[in-house]
Request: fold
Amino acid sequence: MSEELLYLPKVIFRKRAEVRAAIYGNEEHDELTGEVLFYPFMAGSLLAVAVKNLPEDGFFGFHIHERGICEGTFATVGGHYGTAGQSHPRHTGDLPVLMSGGGFAYMMVSTNRFRPEQVVGRSVVIHAMPDDYRSAPAGDMGMRIACGVIRRQQPV
Reply:
């Protein structure tokens, strides 16, 4: 087994995430909640995602957006993080879709596109439809149904 695979449990189970986003739904999805934990991992980040009360089973777009202002319809978050000179789905903030079963979604994903400290002050957004990974500028995912500001966690 490679050194990287052996390192994975140490990151999740032995270290507290330095950066976190608490997710909450819009008015129409007010019971939707969750969190994203960001861990430094190799040359980038490891994200651990847990969401409950998604509106249905299926797939939902999931991205990091430019600004950490989650208000109203979440239009305040701006576009995907890192869009300058990059096409979709190669924006820095483009992530895989969430897959819901019974309203729950869990995901762990690694990326070398950013380190946790680089996304502090931005937001995580869940969209009503899955990313199609081809439509410009952002994957034709429909409305933003949930949002969470990415913040540093307070030391214990």
Notes: Residues 17-61+72-152 form a domain with the Immunoglobulin-like fold (CATH 2.60.40.200).
